[in-house]
Design a protein that fits this description.
There is one protein chain. The protein folds into 2 domains: 94 residues, Phosphorylase Kinase, domain 1; 193 residues, Aminoglycoside phosphotransferase (APH), C-terminal lobe (Aminoglycoside 3'-phosphotransferase, Chain: A, domain 2), CATH 3.90.1200.10. It is built from 9 helices and 9 strands. The strands form 3 sheets. Strands 1-2-3-5-4 form a 5-stranded antiparallel β-sheet, with helices on one face. Strands 6-9 form a two-stranded antiparallel sheet. The longest helix has 27 residues. Bound molecules: adenosine-5'-diphosphate (ADP) and the ligand N[C@@H](CCOP(=O)(O)O)C(=O)O. Adenosine-5'-diphosphate binds next to loops. It is an enzyme of class 2 (transferase). Keywords: Amino-acid biosynthesis, ATP-binding, Kinase, Nucleotide-binding, Threonine biosynthesis, Transferase. One of its GO terms (biological process) is threonine biosynthetic process. It catalyses: L-homoserine + ATP = O-phospho-L-homoserine + ADP + H(+).
């Protein structure tokens, strides 16, 4: 369920007068997603998605919206936010910060083949390169300091074996130096459900609300952990090779990145193990939150420790 805040049609019709996109034809709540209230909005001029931000700080929202606008301007299939008549992306609706973005074509694919992994790898490299000229900067909200803090909050709720795994992993992560790795604006949550396929093409990349400044390699590791793993957490070699080679062809890896890769896959697995374990053990009160299985990411982490992934392509 993703409509936490209802929006009556009469209220939206009035609110749309702040925009130049015609009159309201249809409003429909969207049943996917876990963070915000989302609606499909059709007007006499086009199709849009309305998002009401439920608990994200208003001050952080311009970073995400301007990043989406920047990437769309660079030709990436990212929903461009719509400016209102005051030339602002962010408005207020039902007391919540609210934005309209373009509705993109397509549907997500939870069982992608190697061709789709190739396209995602190439698109992610393009997203990183286009992000180099983005002028704003905001730290990855789920970066290294969040991970340490989240680990302390969840640690005592874990069974003994998981607590030992967490302590050992935090200790390992604290030895890694990411200072030499190329960094910039990253999506940070490029899961299969955040990519819409329109035939063989990527019709849309959505949900930029975990984006931030961090290493490009972290973004790639998040993507590989979701797109290239089997149900037991092991890597699917064909999808893995397709995705990382396509990325490398657009934006070649550096030596420092190749050295950091095994640790980065672990950092990315830890990030989602922690957020899911927090949602599981310390659910946010009063919200209808879809809790995803934390064990999936605990197991991906364990497998990266036991069976390091094949090296990234490039000169040794
Ligand atoms: N710009 C868009 N174009 C088309 N569909 C979209 C767009 N934005 C969101 N959606 C649809 O809405 C659903 C929920 O959006 P999402 O951003 O994942 O929500 P949440 O922020 O709550 O996790 C997506 O699965 C997708 O079906
Ligand atoms: N991709 C994350 C959860 C983030 O939820 P989203 O619906 O906003 O993408 C996970 O799988 O844990």
């Amino acid at each position: 369920m993703s409509v936490f805040t209802p929006v009556p049609e009469t209220v939206l019709a009035q609110w749309l007068q702040n925009y130049a996109i015609g009159r309201l034809v249809e409003l429909k709540g969207i049943s996917a997603g876990v963070q915000n209230s989302n609606f499909f909005v059709t007007t006499t001029l086009g199709r849009y998605v309305l998002t009401l931000f439920e608990d994200m700080p208003r001050a952080e929202l311009p970073y995400y919206l301007h990043l989406m606008a920047h990437l769309a301007r660079h030709g990436l299939p990212v929903p461009a936010p719509i400016a209102n008549r005051d030339n602002e992306y962010l408005g207020t609706l039902q007391g919540k910060p609210a934005v309209l973005v373009m509705r993109l074509q397509g549907a997500s694919d939870m069982t992608p083949d190697t061709d789709r992994c190739t396209r995602v790898g190439a698109m992610l490299a393009g997203l990183h390169l286009a992000g180099q000229s983005y002028g704003r900067r905001q730290a990855n909200p789920r970066g290294a300091s969040w991970r340490s803090e989240a680990a302390q909050r969840v640690r005592n709720h874990l069974p003994t074996d998981e607590r030992a795994l967490l302590d050992a992993e935090l200790c390992f992560q604290s030895t890694l130096d990411c200072g030499q790795l190329p960094a910039g604006a990253i999506h940070a949550d490029l899961f299969r459900d955040n990519v819409l396929w329109d035939g063989e093409h990527i019709g849309g990349v959505i949900d930029f609300y975990f984006a931030g400044h961090d290493t490009w390699l972290f973004d790639l590791a998040v993507t590989v952990n979701d797109w290239c793993t089997e149900a037991d957490g092991s890597l699917n070699r064909a999808r893995y090779d397709a995705l990382v080679q396509a990325y490398h062809a657009e934006r070649p890896f550096t030596a420092a990145e190749r050295a950091a890769w095994p640790g980065m896959l672990r950092a990315a697995a830890l990030r989602f193990w922690l957020s899911r374990a927090l949602d599981f053990h310390l659910p946010r009160e009063g919200e209808m939150v879809l809790v995803k299985n934390p064990h999936e990411y605990r197991d991906i982490l364990r497998l990266h420790i036991d069976v390091p992934a094949p090296p990234l392509p490039g000169q040794v």
